[in-house]
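Structure (tokenized):
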């Protein structure tokens, strides 16, 4: 679709402008005692997993408008993500979804993954919809269900997911439960929680010792009165109950408007219970929009908390799973993912620029203005040349979206797969 040589040619035409902008910024940061190449190395090393379900245009219940050339199977999804990774050198893994991505020919898939320099990051279970041949229904819940046969079906599905993941060398099981209720009185809160905890424990016991279970929370949707795991506190309590290999997953869109997500991140880091992220953007709730598209300052404050926690030796948190969880109806999905990764790296870079010694002094001395200005200074720095340089040094494109357009990739995919091909996804 696009060769490394073509990427280099496209870079060549942008190199002059890039060098000018990069030199200016590097010199300025250097004057302030910031080790520029160290920052570039950290940005180049930062990898974000791409969800298999974001490669098509996610519909809404009102309709769906296919992008054209959407991947029709797991092999084509791997090709698409390989393409993203070739362009930005920052998306080297995939979040799988079962049953949409059940691996069939495992050796062939492993080879395809290796050819594209990709790995499988995590496996997502799906107990939010019934599959055609399913003996019992998830209509009234899965791991929390009142009927043990339904709970066992959902437990077994999660164990199957672990086994599919093992075949492809994944090490993470992501559990998001749609379980909840729509009307007061429908569900007994304490018993639903208890059943969920016990079901999760059965899954946890079947998990290899080097695996992590990520438990995602969500305040509403698909249920609108209560969710069994609505908030980080519930996820955290379940992790405490299960053991060291269970961690909380923060999906940026799973908070009520104006929730202080950065503080949640700080709390979970403090407890050593932050397992990973689902990056996306949102205005109202679980909007699954492009990461950083709506509230870039809040996104920066979240990364500021992350960098602070990751660089503080007192924080004992395992390494995090960085994942995108997006799915919407309007953009070319591959362009959207390129934008998301770009926004994640840009925001991470800004957080790396924060003068932590000065910030800590201002905080200890209660100098509110200086503390705030230190954050704003980093946030307002245009770090795009550093991100471009990180990608260039890793063999990627200086401007991945421009390269994607210049290579007419969507047109090529439509020719190959047809205008109406539809990817499985949300
Ligand atoms: C659903 O709202 C959650 O964000 C899930 O993480 C995710 O979208 C789903 O598990 C994908 O199947
Ligand atoms: Zn999610
Ligand atoms: Zn979600």
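Design, position by position:
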């Amino acid at each position: 679709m696009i060769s490394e040589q073509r990427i280099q040619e496209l870079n060549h035409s942008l190199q002059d402008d890039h060098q000018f902008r990069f030199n200016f910024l590097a010199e300025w940061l250097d004057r302030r005692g910031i080790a520029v190449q160290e920052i570039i190395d950290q940005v180049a090393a930062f990898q974000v997993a791409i969800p298999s379900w974001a490669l098509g245009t996610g519909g809404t219940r009102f309709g769906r408008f296919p992008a054209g050339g959407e991947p029709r199977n797991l092999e084509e999804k791997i090709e698409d993500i390989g393409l993203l990774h070739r362009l930005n050198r920052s998306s080297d893994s995939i979040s799988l979804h079962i049953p949409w991505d059940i691996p069939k020919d495992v050796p062939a898939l492993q080879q395809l993954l290796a050819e594209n320099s990709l790995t499988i990051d995590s496996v997502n279970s799906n107990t939010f919809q019934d599959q055609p041949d399913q003996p019992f229904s998830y209509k009234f819940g899965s791991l929390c269900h009142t009927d043990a046969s339904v709970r066992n079906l959902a437990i077994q599905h999660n164990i199957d997911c672990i086994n599919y993941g093992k075949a492809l060398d994944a090490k993470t099981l992501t559990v998001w439960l749609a379980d909840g209720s729509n009307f007061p009185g429908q569900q007994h809160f304490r018993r639903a929680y208890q059943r969920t905890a016990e079901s999760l424990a059965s899954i946890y016991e079947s998990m290899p010792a080097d695996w992590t279970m990520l438990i995602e929370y969500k305040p509403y949707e698909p249920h609108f009165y209560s969710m069994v795991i609505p908030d980080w506190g519930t996820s955290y309590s379940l992790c405490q109950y299960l053991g060291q290999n269970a961690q909380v997953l923060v999906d940026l869109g799973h908070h009520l408007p104006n929730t202080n997500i950065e503080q949640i991140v700080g709390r979970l880091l403090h407890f050593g219970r932050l397992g990973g992220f689902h990056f996306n953007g949102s205005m109202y709730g679980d909007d699954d929009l492009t990461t950083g598209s709506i509230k870039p300052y809040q996104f920066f404050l979240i990364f500021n908390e992350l960098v602070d926690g990751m660089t503080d030796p007192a924080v004992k948190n395992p390494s995090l799973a960085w994942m995108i969880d997006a799915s919407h109806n309007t953009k070319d999905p591959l362009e959207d993912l390129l934008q998301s990764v770009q926004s994640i790296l840009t925001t991470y870079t800004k957080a790396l620029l924060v003068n932590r010694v000065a910030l800590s002094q201002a905080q200890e001395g209660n100098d509110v203005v200086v503390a705030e200005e230190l954050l704003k200074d980093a946030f307002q720095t245009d770090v795009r040349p550093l991100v471009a340089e990180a990608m260039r040094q890793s063999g990627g494109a200086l401007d991945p979206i421009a390269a994607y357009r210049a290579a007419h990739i969507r047109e090529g995919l439509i020719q190959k797969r047809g205008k109406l091909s539809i990817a499985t996804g949300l």
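Reviewer-requested clarification: Residues 176, 216, 251, 278, 325 surround zinc ion (ligand 2) (CB under 6 Å). The beta strands are 49-51, 93-97, 119-124, 172-176, 180-181, 212-216, 226-227, 246-251, 274-279, 321-324.
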